[in-house]
Amino acid sequence: MERRRFGSLEVQVPVIGQGTWELEGGYGASAVAALRKGLDLGMTHVDTAEMYGSGAAEEIVAEAIAGRREQVFLVSKVLPGNASRRGTVRACEQSLSRLRTDHLDCYLLHWPGPHPLEDTVAGFEDLARGGKIRSWGVSNFDVADLEEVHRVRGAHGPVCNQVLYHLGERAIEHRVLPWCEKHGLAVVGYSPFGHGHFPSPRSRQGQVLQQIGDAHQATVRQVALAFLVRRPPLFTIPKASSAAHAADNAGAGALRLSGTELGRLEDTFALRASSDDLPML
Ligand SMILES: NC(=O)c1ccc[n+]([C@@H]2O[C@H](COP(=O)([O-])OP(=O)(O)OC[C@H]3O[C@@H](n4cnc5c(N)ncnc54)[C@H](OP(=O)(O)O)[C@@H]3O)[C@@H](O)[C@H]2O)c1
C-alpha cells in the first residue's frame, strides 16, 4: 500500500482509505469485518461523519478499530449547521464518544454552511489545543471557499479538502486540485465509484478499464482507484460493506499505471468543459 504525506502533516497516509457513508445500512457484522479487512491490508485512513446514519456509522467504526486505534488515521466531520465555535467542539466531543477514542487525526467541516468560517476555525483551534484533534480540514470547498479559509486559517490551517472525484466527474481538475496543490492541501476524493454508478462491463468505458486491468492482473475497480490517486496530493476513500470488496480496493494501493494507460483513461473519461461550480453528492 503506497503512503504519502497528508498535506502539511508529517504523517504518511495510505493513498486508498475507507469510506463509511451508508455502511450502517443493515450490514452490521459484515460492515465491521469489511473495515477490519481493509485495516489489515493497509487502508488505515478511515473517513466517517456525524451525519452518517446520525452517528451509527461512527459506532461501527468504533467496533472496527477497537484495540488498534494507533494504526488508524481517523477522520470525522461536523455538520455545517452545528459548526459554530461551541457547536463544533460539542459535535466533536459527541463523535469522540461514539468512536470510543480521545482524539481524531483530522476533523472536517462537511460543507460550507451558515456559520462564519472564523467561528468554525476557532472551534477547531479550541479542539486542537485540548488535544482532541490533531489537524483539521474542509470538504466540498470550491476555490472561493478555499480563498476564504486561507484568509482565516488560524494557527495551523486546513490540511485537506475532501471533494467529489471519480472517473465520470473530474471537475476538480480545473481549479480546485491546482489550488490545493499550490497551497499544500491533500485532496481526498470521495465517491470514487460514483456512489454506485460505475461503468458497466459491456460499455466502451468498462472495456477500456478491463483491458488495462488485464495487463496488470488487476480488477476494473483497482484501475479506477489507481487513476484517482495517480499523483500527489490525491487520496481516495472507497466505501465497501464486504471484506471481499475491501480486499479488492486495497489491491489498488500497489498498482502503478503507465503514462500511456493514464492517457488512455484521460481520453476515455473526458474532462468536461470548465465550470465554476464544484459538484457535490
Ligand atoms: N464529504 C462528503 O460530502 C462526502 C460525500 C459522499 C461520500 N463521502 C465519503 O466517501 C466515501 C465513499 O463514497 P460513497 O460511499 O459515496 O460511494 P463509492 O465508494 O463511490 O461507492 C460505494 C459503492 O461501491 C461498491 N463497491 C465498493 N467496493 C467495490 C468493489 N471492490 N467491487 C464492487 N463494488 C464495490 C459498494 O458496494 P458494497 O457497499 O456492497 O461493498 C457501494 O455500492 C463515503 O462512504 C464517505 O465516507 C464524503
Task: Explain what the structure shows.
The structure is a single chain. By secondary structure, the chain is an alpha/beta fold. The chain is 38% helix and 13% strand. The protein has one domain (3-268): NADP-dependent oxidoreductase domain (TIM Barrel), CATH 3.20.20.100. Helix 2 links the parallel strand 3 (45-47) and strand 4. Helix 1 (29-40) packs across helix 2 (56-65), helix 3 (85-99) crosses helix 4 and helix 7 (204-216) crosses helix 8 (220-228). 47% of the residues are buried. The model has no long low-confidence stretch (mean pLDDT 95). NADP nicotinamide-adenine-dinucleotide phosphate (NAP) is lined by residues 19-21, 47, 110, 139-140, 162, 190-196, 221, 237-242, 245, 248-249, 280-281. The site of NADP nicotinamide-adenine-dinucleotide phosphate (NAP) has 27 residues, from helix 9.
CATH class: Alpha Beta
Average pLDDT, all residues: 95
Order of helices and strands: EEHEHEHEHEHEHEHHEHH
Named once each, the bound ligands are: NADP nicotinamide-adenine-dinucleotide phosphate
Please state the second-level CATH architecture.
Alpha-Beta Barrel
Low-pLDDT runs: none
Q: What proportion strand?
A: 5-15%
Sheet/helix structural class? alpha/beta
Helical residues, percent: 25-40%
- In DSSP terms (H or I, runs of 4 or more residues), the helix count works out at 10
Summarize the structure.
With 281 residues, the chain is α/β, with parallel strands linked by helices. It is 38% helix and 13% strand. Helix 1 packs across helix 2.
Secondary structure layout plus pairing:
Elements: E1 3-5, E2 12-14, H1 29-40, E3 45-47, H2 56-65, E4 73-78, H3 85-99, E5 106-109, H4 117-129, E6 136-139, H5 143-151, E7 160-164, H6 176-183, E8 186-190, H7 204-216, H8 220-228, E9 234-236, H9 243-250, H10 259-268
Helix pairs in contact: 1-2, 1-9, 3-4, 7-8, 7-10
The structure holds NADP nicotinamide-adenine-dinucleotide phosphate.
